[in-house]
Design goal:
The chain has 156 residues and is an alpha+beta fold. It is built from four helices and seven strands; from the N terminus they run βααβββαβαββ. A hairpin with a 2-residue loop joins strand 2 and strand 3. The relative contact order is 0.15. It comes from Massilia aurea.
């Protein structure tokens, strides 16, 4: 899916110029296990990944970061976050839709992710979009909270 495919949607690929906004969203969204400027720079420039941002004018409202692995026909949502000022406005749903469409257009047959077992809002979003649990990781997060592993098969 090209950049033009997102025209008028408020979604676009992230650029290095977005790093300050990405770090600000990360710091406002997560109490620990945060991505820093250096990690975002690496993920945007060198990693086998793609990051999309939801923007309103110049304001970045949220982002989704997908990791890809050579030889695997899937994508992993490494991180998704919405700035707290825009929670409940559909930002995460729009980003997830864009990421799923991009993944399908690039030959991925599934999207996987981990989510905090106690994150009811995120679980509702993912389950409402057809994600199903296929495992868990005990004490996955910085505070010892478990993660549920979810996946959604994509229609090609």
């Amino acid at each position: 899916m090209s950049t033009n495919a997102f025209a008028n949607s408020g979604i676009r690929p992230a650029t290095p110029g977005d790093i300050a906004a990405l770090v600000a969203i990360e710091n406002a969204s997560f109490p620990g296990d945060r991505l820093d400027r250096r990690r975002f720079r690496y993920l945007l420039r060198e990693a086998n990944s793609v990051t999309f941002v939801d923007v309103d004018g110049a304001a970045v409202r949220g982002y989704i970061l997908l990791l890809l692995r050579t030889g695997w026909r899937g994508a992993r949502v490494y991180s998704i976050a919405t700035h707290p000022a825009h929670l409940g406005c559909g930002v995460a749903a729009r980003l997830l839709t864009a990421a799923e469409r991009w993944a399908a257009a690039h030959g991925c047959v599934q999207v996987r992710l981990e989510v905090r077992a106690d994150n009811a809002a995120s679980l509702a979003l993912f389950r409402g979009r057809g994600y199903v649990a296929f495992g868990s990781h005990g004490a996955y997060y910085h505070d010892g909270m478990d993660a549920l592993r979810l996946r959604r098969m994509l229609a090609l």
